Amino acid sequence: MKIMEINQFIHCYKLELSYFKMPYQCDGCKELGFGSCYQCNNKKCDFHLHENCGVPKPITTHSFFKNSNFKFKKKRKRGKTCKACGKDVQGFMYKFKETYLHPCWLKLPSTLNGNFNRG
Length: 119
Ligand SMILES: [Zn+2]
Ligand SMILES: [Zn+2]
Ligand SMILES: [Zn+2]
What we know:
The chain has helices spanning 51-54, 109-117; strands spanning 3-5, 14-25, 32-40, 48-50, 59-62, 65-73, 93-96, 99-101. The chain is mainly beta.
């Protein structure tokens, strides 16, 4: 079991990477997720993070937005909507100029197109 320490979350000292068959709500970006997930190893604590919210890239790019360098932001901003899904951004996000994206849209490039084409 991979264990990592994520210091920025005050109450959670250690988060374990585990696999979820059921959807969970990510406490970073507030979006639903399933599959691999960082979970607090305190069983009483209901804290989950997407894998890429737990270990975000500080700066990343997106093939849909040419010449863009999205920066990871932890603080939410009011009234911002995700360019990819149109829903409000309520937690972690990536920002480039006036474009905001939920972190789930900025996975590794190999899976990126698949995510956009789905549904
Ligand atoms: Zn915790
Ligand atoms: Zn997340
Ligand atoms: Zn979104």
